[in-house]
Design a protein that fits this description.
GO molecular function: DNA binding
Number of helices: 11
Number of strands: 0
Structural class: mainly alpha
Protein name: TetR family transcriptional regulator
Radius of gyration: 20 Å
CATH class of the largest domain: Mainly Alpha
Keywords: DNA-binding
Organism: Nocardia mangyaensis
CATH topology of the largest domain: Tetracycline Repressor, domain 2
Helix content: 55-70%
CATH architecture of the largest domain: Orthogonal Bundle
Oligomer: single chain
Distance between the termini: 68 Å
Order of helices and strands: HHHHHHHHHHH
Largest sheet: none
Strand content: under 5%
InterPro entries: Homeodomain-like_sf, HTH_TetR
Number of domains: 2
Amino acid sequence: MPRGVAIPEIRQQLFAAAERVTVRDGPGRLSGRAVTGEAGVATGLLYAHFADLDDFLAAYAVDRAFLVSAEAAALRDRAGRGSVAGNLCGAILSIPAPTVLASARLLVARPELTERVHAVLGDKTAGLEAIESAATTYLADEQRHDRVSRAADPAALALALVGVFHHLVLTEDSEAEVRTRTRRAIAGLVDPFTVASPRHDTAADRAGRPAPPA
């Protein structure tokens, strides 16, 4: 990058670079030089925007937690519409697997970052906590809509869903395989507790079904 040229959205460029370094090399290899080298910018640029590496990593953790929280917040609005498993898949798989992997590795390596995320965004916002919390609330809402069995435990189901996704992100090399196996697992966990409720069907749900006989 030529000296003196302004770089739009430099913070996001540096965050994306840190994510790639963490996924490829692990959090132990994170340094200001590694991040700026990956981003293709001058070494000192990181310190022009952040006090030090710890400040940068805290900002990264908060930024990614906010992204996850925003996706989680939209889940509750889907209660009563679409398919239960489909809604959960949509929320969970809207989070890029590299973001989940990098955040998980970083929070394990630097547990103090969890406290900094909580200080900014509140409790249950670090890593996938927001998705787990939102999924619990969503499933309870679907019980009130009579679309999920009263026998289901929303908190236990939400923990299982997030645990499956987290495990697959950590162990699968292919993002496509993560998505495929996550969908299959969510359907397997949720469908047995889903109650057919035609009055809640959407046009999208009905579109794939044959028309009733005249």
